[in-house]
Amino acid sequence: MSKGECRWGILGAAVIAQKNWQSIHNSGNGTILAVASRDREKAARFIQARQQECPFPVEPDACTYEELLARSDIDAVYIPLPTGLRKEWVIRAARAGKHVMCEKPCAVHADELREMLQVCHEHRVQFMDGVMFMHSQRLQAIRGILNDGLSIGDIRRISSHFSFRAPDEFLASNIRVSSELEPHGCLGDLGWYCIRFALWALNSQMPVEISARLLAHHGRADSPDVVPMELSAELKFPNDVSFGFFCSFLIEQQQTATISGTRGYLHVSDFVLPNFGNEVAFQVINNDFQVAGCRFNMSNHTRRVAVNEYSNNHPNAQETRLFRHFGDLVQSGQIDETWGEVALKTQIIVDACLESARNNGRCISPCMEGQA
């Protein structure tokens, strides 16, 4: 391994890889040596376009998946391949001794992810999913508010909403409306983030009961089955804490999360992808209701908490911190398996939501048995 930097290969020239090319560039501890595609020319075009916008001193090589994994100068691979293909290539990468950054959802179902994590464990390689907001400094500030005992009090309710309005070309051809490539549809693409936020807020506690409803579905012309286009779910956690989320490809951009407690509530209006700017923020609300004769007064007490953190691949943005954190783990030689564990918990909840939705909202009790 090259001392002082993590040498990356990108396995698949997906759109999200365009963003993460610059994140690796700005990480300060990483460089890209190769980009792979089934079509080497596609990889070459990807590299050429990215080098014009954000160049590495040495231009990465274009190669096939097999060629990339055979290279001895690659420490880690970023895998943005479709969910239906991830198991094979995560396992092949781990067996080749490459650390794995995997896009979400990580697998078609939890048993696949258990197998992937077991192989990573056996070959002593780091596994992490690409949930960028987990690496934002904003979460540290939110945790401070949750832990102060006064601002929110005891958490009783969490709710989140993540949606975007898919254009006609998306509905006709995007991989996220193919049951072979992305069988979870909006649940995997958007709901994964909602679930992860709740797991983080509740210190990785698992729900005891899940019920979900499929509100709309669709499949492109060559899809063997439909996938969720709009889904809502209700989860019950220990101590009667509840969490509800909604995800949709049919409603315009919204990415909100609210944590409500016995003393107040906390609201984040952009919890997944921060609004463009040089800070990330959230609100803490402690309303007060008083009755004075005929006057029923509701007074609003809102304070805004902001953290100096840029958006959009800046050196201190959450996506850049994601790759920097991963690179630091690789360089340390230590494996942090908690990242695989929280990915598995998220996957188990996604599976349970999909099972419930396919069975008219039947209550499901998720199970962690067989965890890697």
Question: Low-confidence parts lasting 5 or more residues at pLDDT below 50?
Answer: none
Assign the CATH topology of the largest domain: Dihydrodipicolinate Reductase, domain 2
Q: Give the helices and strands as they follow along the chain.
A: EHEHEHEHEHEHEHHEEEEEEEEEHH
CATH architecture level-2 label of the largest domain:
2-Layer Sandwich
Number of domains: 2
The top-level CATH class of the largest domain is Alpha Beta
Rg, Cα atoms, Å: 21 Å
Number of strands: 16
Q: Helix tally?
A: 10
- Residue share in helices? 25-40%
Instruction: Tell me about the largest β-sheet.
Output: 8 strands, mixed
For this entry, what is the oligomeric state of its chains? Answer: single chain
Report strand order across the widest sheet. Answer: 8-9-10-7-11-12-13-16
State which percent range the strand residues make up.
25-35%
Question: Which homologous superfamily in CATH is the superfamily of the largest domain?
Answer: Dihydrodipicolinate Reductase, domain 2
Short description:
By secondary structure, the chain is α/β, with parallel strands linked by helices.
Summarize the structure in words.
The chain has 372 residues and is α/β, with parallel strands linked by helices. It folds into 2 domains: 6-133, 3-Layer(aba) Sandwich (Rossmann fold); 137-317 and 346-358, Dihydrodipicolinate Reductase, domain 2 (2-Layer Sandwich). 34% of the residues lie in helices and 26% in strands. It contains 10 helices and 16 strands. The strands form 3 sheets. An 8-stranded mixed beta sheet has the order 8-9-10-7-11-12-13-16, with helices on one face. α4 (83-95) links the parallel β4 (76-79) and β5 (99-102). The longest helix is centred in the last third of the chain and has 21 residues, at 338-358. The model has no long low-confidence stretch (mean pLDDT 96).
